[in-house]
Amino acid sequence: MNAHPVVIVGAGLAGLSCAVHLHEAGVPVEVYEASDGVGGRVRSDRTDGFILDRGFQVALTAYPELQRQLDTAALDFRAFEPGALVWRNGKGSVVADPFRRPSQIVSTTIAPIGNPLDKAKVAWLRAKLRRGDPARLLEGTDVTTSAALIHAGFSPTIIDRFFRPLAGGIQLDPQLADSRRVFDITFRMLADGDAVVPASGMQAIPDQLAARLPTGTVRLGAPVASASATSVRLAHGNEIEASAVVVATDGPTASNMLGIAPVASKTVGCVYFGADAAPTDSKCIVLDGSGAGPVLNAAVMSNIASSYAPPGRHLIAAALPGRTDDDIERLARRQLRHWWGEQVDAWDHLATYRIPHGQPRQSPPFDPKQPVHLEDGRFVCGDHRDTASIQGALFSGRRCAEAVISSRTTEEPS
Ligand SMILES: Cc1cc2nc3c(=O)[nH]c(=O)nc-3n(C[C@H](O)[C@H](O)[C@H](O)COP(=O)(O)OP(=O)(O)OC[C@H]3O[C@@H](n4cnc5c(N)ncnc54)[C@H](O)[C@@H]3O)c2cc1C
Fold first, then answer.
1. How far apart are CA 169 and CA 351, in angstroms?
2. Residue 69: inside a domain
3. How much distance in Å is there from the Cα of 50 to the middle of ligand 1?
4. Is residue 256 included in any domain, yes or no?
5. Residue with the nearest Cα to atom 32 of ligand 1?
6. How does residue 205 score in pLDDT terms, banded at 50, 70 and 90?
7. Measured at the alpha carbon of residue 71, what is the angle toward residues 69 and 77, in degrees to the nearest 5?
8. CA of 8 to the centre of ligand 1 (A)
9. Average per-residue pLDDT in the chain?
10. Domain boundary pick from 344, 360, 376
11. Does the structure show a pLDDT above 60 at 414?
């Protein structure tokens, strides 16, 4: 057996998950990470007592791999209210899941997001998607999310005022041009559990995985320039020999490094504001019911997790899928002023994140299970191998570790 470690390129969720599985199976492993910390797209900054996730995002408790791979109790999750607060014409209307929040049924019935048939259809869609094994949702005919919603008979009103900001916001896809398979599985996960953040920020998720690796396993500030099946070359020149190489970078980098099919990007901007008073006491995600954007969704994070802001202060996150231009702070402030009035002018601008690769595009026909063991012997994992999500990244990391272990078993002399 080759005595060199398995070398993993990238310490995002996929790379960390792969490393933890290999380490716990007794396989020596080293992780080379280009940046100054673990987590990749799931990192958090701390500024003046605020916790700022690098782009507004949530974990869903229904993600099977989150439950399987993490100690969720230790993450001390804080949950959003199920449903959404849809903001339109200066007013917010609660659109709740009537099965989980029956007391909100009146508000949901009168919310100006579509006609009564649309709302009945949402309940029908929910029931349909919750039936049976979630994996079956990733099969069958595939079309864009927008085409699937039109085909299901939803009116343009509910698509623009509800589905676009909700699904467009979570999947960074304001055009609803991605696969209906991904929409279906996301809608199912939202109905099956809670949207949550760890009390200490999203970074707690990768930190917990990294803490299960021996000290020194992850080398930070170590960008990899190239990778063969038996070694990697660091950007500063050193060559590291490996018993196997796993490329766990984002999709576009993996595609360049490995020569696999190009991975297209969905971009996103996120603007954080600090305020003395919360503009709403809702713990719901707030959706743009105007259909105009560019902020598709927002949240008063300190209502969901008080730890996200210092005492007496509030944290507002505004997400702008598809927008990374210079102007997004001004655009976000202008739109939120329409929602919440002049108080918005007094808010402090805490940070703006522009993320050129937020998620890989998942156009139909979308195949959610791409190979992790390439023909030339190299391995690859990341959210571009499965669904573009925390679930997909964790699953691909585990799947890849299993493939590495199985290849070692096959190579072992009898
Ligand atoms: C703003 C935003 C909102 C999101 N919202 C949600 C959400 O609500 N729910 C959800 O489930 N998912 C969400 N996602 C998606 C989710 O965060 C990602 O799918 C997941 O984190 C991807 O993990 P990964 O390990 O595949 O890739 P990455 O996190 O990209 O990790 C790759 C790692 O490789 C490193 N790397 C790159 N090149 C090199 C190199 N040459 N050498 C060494 N290291 C390298 C990078 O620095 C990085 O640490 C969101 C993403 C963003 C950005």
1. 19
2. no
3. 22
4. yes
5. 249
6. very high
7. 115
8. 15
9. 94
10. 360
11. no
Specify the pTM.
0.96
Residue 102 confidence class, pLDDT cut points 50, 70, 90 = low
Does residue 169 or residue 46 have the better pLDDT? 46
First to last CA, the chain: 12
Q: Is the beta carbon of 186 within 6 A of some atom in ligand 1?
A: no
Q: How many CA atoms lie within 13 A of 305 on its CB side?
A: 22
Binned at pLDDT 50, 70 and 90, residue 18 comes out as very high
Does the C-beta of 11 come closer than 6 Å to ligand 1?
yes
Q: How far, in Å, from the CA of 49 to the mean position of ligand 1?
A: 25
Domain match, 167 and 211 both: no
Is there an atom of ligand 1 within 6 Å of 32 CB?
yes
pLDDT at residue 339 is higher than 90: yes
Query: Residues near 208 by Cβ (< 8 Å), separated by ≥ 6?
Result: 70, 71, 74, 75
Round to whole Å and give the CA distance between 324 and 317: 15
**Alpha carbon nearest to ligand 1 atom 2, residue:** 55
Same-domain check for residues 192 and 287: yes
Is any ligand 1 atom within 6 A of the Cβ of residue 249?
Answer: yes
Residue whose Cα lies nearest atom 4 of ligand 1: it is 57
CATH code, 390? 3.50.50.60
Which mutation among 38, 203, 359 tests ligand 1's pocket best, with the greatest number of atoms within 8 A of CB?
359
**Are 235 and 379 in a shared domain?**
yes
Among the candidates 341, 360, 379, a domain finishes at 360
Distance CA 381, CA 251 (A): 9
| Model confidence pLDDT, tens digit, residues 372-394 | 999 999 999 999 999 999 999 99
Host domain of residue 110? 77-200+266-360
Q: With 60 as the cut, is the pLDDT of residue 288 above it?
A: yes
Q: How far is the CA of 140 from the centre of ligand 1 (A)?
A: 28
The phi-psi region of residue 85 (left if phi > 0; otherwise alpha if psi is between -120 and 50; otherwise beta) is: beta
52 falls within a domain? no
What's 127's domain CATH number? 3.90.660.50
Residue 359 CB–ligand 1 contact under 6 Å: yes
> How open is the CA angle 303-306-310, to the nearest 5 degrees?
120
Same domain, yes or no: 170 and 309: yes
Cβ–ligand 1 contact at 17 (below 6 Å): no
- Could you tell me if 265 and 383 are in contact, meaning their C-beta atoms sit under 8 angstroms apart? no
